[in-house]
Amino acid sequence: MSETRIVVVGAGVAGLTTALLLSRIAKYNITVAAKHMPGDYDIEYASPWAGADYLPVSAPGTEAAEWDRNTWTELEKLARHSPEAGVHFQDAFIYSRNTDFEGSEGSALGKAMSSDPWYKDIVPNFRKIPKSQLPAGFDDGTCFRSVCINTAIYLPWLTSECLKAGVVLKRGVFGHISEAAHTHHSGQKAELIVNCTGLSAGKIGGVEDKSMVPARGQTVLVRNEAIGIVGGSGTDDGDDEVCYVIPRAAGGGTILGGCYQEGNWDSQFDPNLANRIMKRAVELCPSLTDGKGIEHLSVIRHGVGLRPVRLRGTRIEKEKINGVWVVHNYGHGGYGYQSSYGCSQAAVKLVGEALAVRARL
Q1: Following CA atoms 5, 9, 14, 17 in sequence, which dihedral angle do they give, to the nearest 10 degrees?
Q2: 334 among the known binding-site residues?
Q3: CB under 8 Å to 74, separation ≥6 — which residues?
Q4: What is the model's pLDDT at position 334?
Q5: Is 97 labelled a binding residue?
Q6: Which residues, 6+ apart, have CB-to-CB distance to 146 below 8 Å?
Q7: Contact 332, 313 (CB under 8 A)
Q8: pLDDT at 104 over 50
Q9: Which of 73, 110, 198, 269 would be 308's cystine partner, CB 3.0–4.6 Å?
C-alpha cells in the first residue's frame, strides 16, 4: 500500500505535535511547511513566547476540557521519562480574589479560575491553601502538581522527534491554504492538508476566519528562581493585566507576566507595563528576590507575543477546499501547550475520517 502524502502548515506547538502524532502512523508521509520554525522569534509566531505551564481554564464537560485532560497524560509522561524535552514538574500556587469573579466583565483570567476546578481529579496533590497562608488581598487559593515547559528546549525537541520519524520540514509562505498541497517533499501533490496556521488563519486564502484576533501578551524573562508556578486571578492595574510566575526547566529562567490585550497588534514592549509586571511578581512571589524589590531581578529579556485567539473557540474540523481535504487545528489562544496533545489527537482522528471518505470516492 502506498503512503498517503500529508502537508502540515505551521510549525508552532500545534503543527509540530500534530505532525509527530501523524508520523507514528506508518501509512502517512508527512511534510511540515511553515513561514516560521523553532529558533525564529516573530510576534505572530506565538509558541516561543509562551510561559508555558498546565493550568486548564476550560469549562467542565466541554470538548476543550477533554483536550486538556488528554494532554495532561502526555505532558506527565514527558516530565517523568523524557528530561531532554524540557518539561518538568512544579507545584502551582493559584490565588484568587472574590472581586475578580464579580460582574459581567471580570478579569481576563479571573473569570476562568475556580477553587473547585474539574481537573482536580487528574493533577496530583490537589488541595486548598489554608486562609492563613494566603498572600495579602486574596480570598482563596489552591495548590497542585503541574508541569512547566521550557519552550526554547521543547520546540526543538518536537522538531527532532519529527525528524527522527521521517517528517520533512521546509519553509513555505502561502496566499491560499490549498497551495500547500503542492509543497510535499515528494514532489507530488498531497492528498490532505492540516491547517495549523494560528493567527494567520484569519487572513490566509480559503480560510480567512474573521473570528481570529490577537491577544497581546508581554513578559519578562529573569534569571531569578521561583518556588514554583504562582498565579493570581486578577490585578488592580486593569482587567487585561494578570500576574503569573513560571519557572522553566534546565536553566531556562523564570517567566513573569503578563497581560491579555485582545485586539492589540503592537510588537514593541511597554516599559511601564514591564515595571508593573515585575512589581506584581515580586509582591506575589517574594522568593524571587528574597523579599527585596524589582531592582534585584536579573532580567534576561523582555518578550511580546500574540496569542492566536478564535472568538468562536478552537477550531478542529475538516472540510474540502479546492478539491483537497483540509483538517483545521487552530485558534488555541493562550492554551496551545496545555491542549496540544488532545487537540492534535482530535485532528489526527479527523485526518483518518477524511482519508476514508476520499478512499470511497
Answers
A1: 30
A2: yes
A3: 341
A4: 93
A5: no
A6: 53, 54, 55, 89, 90, 91, 92, 123, 229
A7: no
A8: no
A9: 198
What does the block give as the cell for 209?
Answer: 476566519
| Nearest residue to 241 (alpha-carbon basis) of 184, 210, 206, 279 | 279
Phi and psi of 60, rounded to 5°?
-60, 145
Tell me if 62 is assigned to a ligand binding site. Answer: no
Closest CA to 301 of 80, 115, 41, 112: 41
Given a contact cutoff of 8 angstroms between Cβ atoms, the answer to whether 169 and 162 are in contact is yes
Cβ proximity of 153 and 159 under 8 Å? no
CA distances from 325 to 21, 35, 177, 234, 275 (A): 18, 21, 11, 43, 48
DSSP structural state of residue 176: B
What whole-number distance in Å separates Cα of residue 60 and Cα of residue 119? 8
Cell numbers for 286, please give them. Answer: 517574594
Give residue for cell 534546565: 250
Residue 161 host element (H or E): helix 151-164
Answer yes or no: is 141 a known binding residue.
no
Indicate if the pLDDT at residue 307 is higher than 90: yes
Whether 348 and 329 have beta carbons less than 8 Å apart is answered as: no
Phi first, then psi, for residue 151 (nearest 5°) are -65, -30
Q: How crowded is residue 203: how many other Cβ atoms within 10 Å of its Cβ?
A: 13
Phi, psi of 128 (to 5 degrees): -80, 145
Confidence of residue 106 (pLDDT cuts 50, 70, 90): very low
> pLDDT, tens digit, for every residue of 163-176?
999 999 999 999 99
